[in-house]
Amino acid sequence: MNKGREKIEWVKRNMPVLSEIKERFKEKKPLEGHKIGMALHVEPKTANLVETLRDGGAEIAITGCNPLSTQDDVSKYLDNEKGIRSYAKRGVNTEEYYEAIDNVLDFHPDITIDDGADLVFRLHSERPNQIDEIIGGSEETTTGVKRLESMESDNALKYPIIAVNDTPMKRHFDNVHGTGESTLSAIMATTNLQISGKNIVVAGYGYCSSGVAKKAKALGARVTVTEVKPRKALEAVMDGYEVKKMEKAIQKADIVVTATGNKNVIGREELKKINNGAVLANSGHFNVEIDLEAAEDLANNVKEIREGIKKYELSDDRNFYVLAEGRLVNLAAPLGFGHPIEVMDLSFSIQALSVQHLAKNPELQPGVKKVPQKIDEKVAEIKLKTMDIEIDELTSEQKDYLTSWKSGT
User: What class does this enzyme belong to in the EC scheme (predicted)?
Assistant: First the structure.
């Protein structure tokens, strides 16, 4: 058994929800005759999703959604599996990255699955003649959904895409617990530094960044949050965090984590004021949250001092460190394995059932669509069953009370 297969077998043992869905797919073949094009992080958990869709009757072509998140042994294994083609390679340049996306589109999929919307954008901008072949798609992450919503507002999105990221089962588990735990795990594994006692600055207080803040606080860090939205800043304050502007917070930061989905969150002016020895890590999808051009310009010398760690030496003898080239640290760092398996069991189960929904409903109109509530609840139900947890059920009287407007004081 090759290494890729061994990794996939390990995650399967810890993905019971997707395993149950896979058994149903094997039996009913709900995706028979469909061709699915995917741009995701090609690693073992993703491979389990790919095999689930294949076992449901689909043919699959997949590539990576980030130049540093592919595990080559997993990609190679998938490429040798019946009904699956994988074009993903770790460490590709920009040209090679989009060439691989074009290879997926050459497959002429009728359903897309994306993480960051690069596949969808490439399709719309470079290959619009193929759009009529697509019945629908799904999007995994916050950054991708934001891009799709922007496309929709400009009337540029030409087919329906389910925003898997925005469903409660994704936001409250994958985004909060998955991003929080995997980000800090990757930082600790890459640097061999502890979190306890550190001054940690977290940029943003959305689902992902609040998860980072929560987990860092639980590990004993002193956490400061930066925000641009008044309500989110107030929420952070009420949750017990200090809230400051980045230019002030960064002056005392030991570690700074960005997870906002926006660019230049740590820009030139902030880098000028950075605390000596600070470690910068990004957990947003694209490598734009830390202004790396400004960092290169400000530094007298830049060198990789350890795999996944670049040191930027400033003229006044201060220095700072950037992890994983500013790419999402939980997957791009040398020891970044992505979200915990159990979390991705939920998210990829939602993906699988959302693709089934698309196959059953080819008449959906273009636009960003919600995950049907029954899918969200079904995944939660299966997960509780695998944990041997029972919950109460509403009585008929309680259901009537909750749906009636007549009952008052």
Answer: hydrolase
Provide the pairing of β-strand 84-86 with 111-114. unpaired
Only one residue has tokens 């930066």, namely 226
CATH of domain 3-170+340-386: 3.40.50.1480
Residue 183 labeled ligand binder: no
Per DSSP, the three-state class of 390 is coil
Consult the annotation and say whether 142 binds a ligand: yes
Q: What are phi and psi of 137, to 5 degrees?
A: -150, 180
Residue 207, annotated as binding a ligand: yes
Give residue-wise pLDDT tens across range 359-373: 999 999 999 999 999
Cα–Cα distance between 313 and 51 in angstroms, integer?
A: 46
Strands 278-282 and 301-306: unpaired
Is 284 annotated in some ligand binding site?
yes
Residue 36 exposed, middle or buried by CB count within 10 Å (0-12, 13-18, 19+): buried
Query: In the chain, what are the domain boundaries?
Result: 3-170+340-386, 176-332
Q: Which of 126, 31, 115 is nearest to 69 (CA)?
A: 115
**CA-wise closest residue to 99 among 87, 108, 107:** 87
210 annotated as a binding-site residue: yes
Question: For tokens 């029972």, what's the residue?
Answer: 390
- Using pLDDT thresholds of 50, 70 and 90, give the confidence band for residue 408: confident
Answer yes or no: pTM beyond 0.90. Answer: yes
**Per CATH, the architecture of 176-332 is what?**
3-Layer(aba) Sandwich (3.40)
What's the CA gap between 384 and 143, in Å, rounded?
29
Exposed/middle/buried for 132, CB within 10 Å: 0-12, 13-18, 19+?
exposed
The closest alpha carbon to 332, from 63, 95, 42, belongs to: 42
